[in-house]
Amino acid sequence: MASLHFKYAAMNSGKSTQLIQAHFNYLERGLEPYALASELHDRDGEGIISARVGLSLKADIFGLDCDLFEKVDQRNQSGKLNVVIIDEGQFLTKDQCYQLAKVVDDLNIPVIVYGLKTDFRGELFDGSYHLFCLADKIEELKTICWCGNKAHMNARITENGIVVRSGEQVEVGGNDRYVALCRKHYLQGQVQA
Ligand SMILES: [Zn+2]
User: Fold this and answer.
1) Is the pLDDT of residue 169 over 80?
2) 91 Cβ contact list (under 8 Å, min separation 6)
3) Does 72 score more than 90 pLDDT?
4) Residues sharing a CB contact under 8 Å with residue 94, sequence separation 6 or more, in sequence order
5) Could you report how far apart the first and last alpha carbons of the chain are, in Å?
6) How many CB atoms lie under 10 A from the CB of residue 97?
7) pLDDT at 93
8) Pairing mode, strands 163-164 and 153-157
9) In 3-state terms, what secondary structure has residue 116?
10) Mean pLDDT (the chain, rounded)
11) Which of 20, 21, 59, 78 is a plausible cystine mate for 37, CB 3.0–4.6 Å?
12) 88 is a catalytic site residue
């Protein structure tokens, strides 16, 4: 029985490193993973999932109006496919979350989605909301604030280190404009000691 997994985290938690490691583990066991990434994610050019530790992985890119069930079903019919691995799950639409659930239920293929829980305003991403609703297994990938406490808030910071709490949810750009903080320091706007 396959499952829909949602592994969520704050920024800079090593989520892409874990995704790439999981992908490698499947390959090493002779299994065929299928990596997918949203076109909204463009950190290193089209279709490359990269991690800060220097690893990278070629993924298939999908748009907001892509039917992920159709996409996975086609891929499944053209060759071996054992698991679907998705990066930046927060950018999935509601429909795409349901399409992934259908991949699990109808094709019996496990789906592992990695993503951020909340945006810099401290509010759930739409994709994450529906993944929380639908996933069979939910796991938090932990990271820490500069103070040593668990960091689960994502602060957007200006060049001068000021925490911003309003604006567009998605601003594609460098990772360095975000920092993971504990709730206390997120609310206080204190990004370092
Ligand atoms: Zn803190």
Assistant:
1) no
2) 38, 40, 41, 64, 115, 125, 127, 170
3) yes
4) 126, 127, 130
5) 48
6) 25
7) 96
8) antiparallel
9) strand
10) 91
11) 59
12) yes
| Centroid of ligand 1 to alpha carbon of 130 (angstroms) | 28
**Which of 140, 152, 162 lies closest to 183, judged by CA?**
152
Token output for 134: 């639908």
94-45-19 Cα angle (round to 5): 60
User: Which phi and psi (to 5°) does residue 38 adopt?
Assistant: -70, 145
Question: Which has the closest alpha carbon to 5: 109, 118, 77?
Answer: 109
CA of 54 to the centre of ligand 1 (A): 27
Q: From the candidates 32, 46, 88, 140, give the one annotated as an active-site residue.
A: 88
pLDDT band at 132 (very low <50, low <70, confident <90, very high): very high
pTM, to two decimals: 0.91
Q: Ligand 1 centre and the CA of 157: distance in Å?
A: 15
**Taking ligand 1, which is a single-atom ion, which protein residues have CB atoms under 5 Å away?**
145, 147, 149, 182, 185
Residue 45: band (very low, low, confident or very high) from pLDDT cuts 50, 70, 90 = low
Centre of ligand 1 to C-alpha 33, Å, is: 37
Ligand 1 centroid–CA 105 distance in Å is: 40
- Which domains are delineated in the chain? 4-142 (3.40.50.300)
